[in-house]
Amino acid sequence: MKKKFAWFFCVIIAVLALSGCKSDGEASESIGEVSLPESGASAADVPTERVNLADIKVEDYVTLGEYKGIEVAVAPAAVDEDEWDELVFQEYGSHITADMGITDRAVKNGDTVNIDYVGKKDGVAFDGGTADGQLLTIGSDSYIDGFEDGLVGVKPGETVDLNLSFPDPYYSNAELSGAAVVFTVTVNFIIPEMEDAIIAGFGQEEYSNVEELRQYVYDYLYEDALYNYDTNVESTILNTVVNNCTYSGFPEGMLAQYQQNVLASIENMASMYGVDGEYYTTTLYQMSLDDFAALSANMSARQVLAFQAIANLEGLTLTEEELDERIETYAADNGMDPETVRETVDREEFREYFMLDDVLAFLMENITIVDE
User: Fold this and answer.
1) pLDDT tens track for 101-112
2) CA–CA separation, 131 vs 112, rounded Å?
């Protein structure tokens, strides 16, 4: 089974774009019309005890609005021309070897070069600052200020030291924010213009000339665009349905549970960039970690309550036998032992997971999608 969306429907990246949900409850603070709890609990204060939908009469907390027979507008799947051109050249350049490259002139603005580099701070190489055979188009502003300009005039085979400074803040690695560094860069060769004869020498089954290469890359990007379109359809349907609902509060413990999950997700994402959750949300969303988690949990609770209410109304609830069958199928689809799955994942968590999946499928069959 392919999971269409996580427990929080990707609310981590979408929550700030959502607004318009109606609420009868009072709150001390709000962003748009999504209310923050009276007291923003910190990561240490949030309990982990699970709140099961099976124990909740969701109709006490949400009144459904329109969710069938409505239209939602979504931009059609399309390939960006600039992205297409860039990826074609990246694919082409990745197959150019030293004997194919230009080595008899200096680098100029607009060239794409094959380079090796090592970045050092206080004489010590830092993580993520070393690469071999990297492609870089001069003038693309892909690297920090001064890096690309420092390669103009350098001839293939030459090595230069670039004394530079990282921007402040530097989102990818907080430890490098504003840091003075030295990049030792070797220009290996300049990538030549695309030609059929050069591409034919790559020995690729998928393409042997410029036209076929462009089609190959287009097909890849269009498949990605279709995936993004499906994701946008799901997100738009979700937002529309939730925004049509009226809410009168939340079951006890639900916001706390969801907030804990959001906190864990944010900390995990932040760690991949070498920063903590507070730095991550403050920098990207201009919100404290606790406020962001509270807002995200609020939105997630609205989504889950609305979907469960639809499931109840439309008879999309699973019997115990059906739940067992779905767990068996889930385990088989993911190459897992069913007994191991049952022992490691809460049964009610599976029930909610399948409910979310089933309600989304129901909505997609009963809502009309039009081009934006």
Assistant:
1) 999 999 999 999
2) 16
